[in-house]
Design a protein that fits this description.
Length: about 200
């Protein structure tokens, strides 16, 4: 690993530990990030975001291109631990899902973060102190939603790739790896916001 990457990862760890105890945000490179996943059931204007209580319900909202959220394993207690999983239609809804003064992170902002801390690390702590808990996701593939829970965490970006796919960032703990990929808009992922 290059010296610059090691130094940045060390700074990332140290700054995360300090800021976590002070406020729920951290400056990393060019951007200020929230240290928690979004956990709202309402749009910015107060309208309710529908909750999907089963995989079938989540699939239906996706098929209809309607916004929806669910908890990991559809268990309410997981919301306070991991935040909520949203489909992409909740991300791009014109009513806005992020708090005032914040926005859903973009593909370029994730790429900037990856460039800053490095794509991979031998230290799992860098991701832990970013509060990126391994909450998995609901990944849509081959016309079905597949649970992907445990070893990684998936985050939507606000950057659309096509009518059916958009970009997301995934952090995989077993290989200590972070990168940006494309996933179907009906998938369920977490949201991490960046300050305007």
């Amino acid at each position: 690993m290059k010296l610059k990457t090691k130094v940045n990862l060390l700074l990332f760890l140290l700054l995360s530990q300090y800021v976590t105890s002070q406020i729920n945000e951290i400056n990393l490179g060019e951007n200020t990030w929230m240290l928690k996943n979004l956990n709202t059931s309402k749009f910015r204007n107060g309208d309710i975001i529908p909750e999907a209580k089963t995989i079938k319900e989540f699939e239906k909202y996706g098929e209809e291109k309607k916004p929806a959220w669910c908890n990991k394993n559809f268990d309410k207690k997981n919301g306070s631990v991991y935040g909520k999983l949203y489909n992409y239609y909740a991300v791009i809804d014109s009513r806005g899902i992020s708090p005032s003064g914040w926005h859903v992170s973009t593909k370029s902002e994730w790429e900037s973060l990856i460039s800053y801390i490095g794509k991979s690390s031998t230290q799992k702590k860098e991701f832990v102190n970013f509060n990126a808990k391994p909450g998995g996701g609901l990944i849509f593939s081959e016309s079905a939603i597949n649970k992907d829970i445990g070893d990684g965490v998936y985050y939507w970006t606000s950057t659309k790739e096509s009518d059916y796919y958009s970009f997301s960032s995934s952090i995989i703990y077993s290989s200590y790896y972070i990168d940006v990929y494309e996933y179907h808009n009906s998938s369920g992922m977490y949201i991490r916001c960046v300050k305007d």
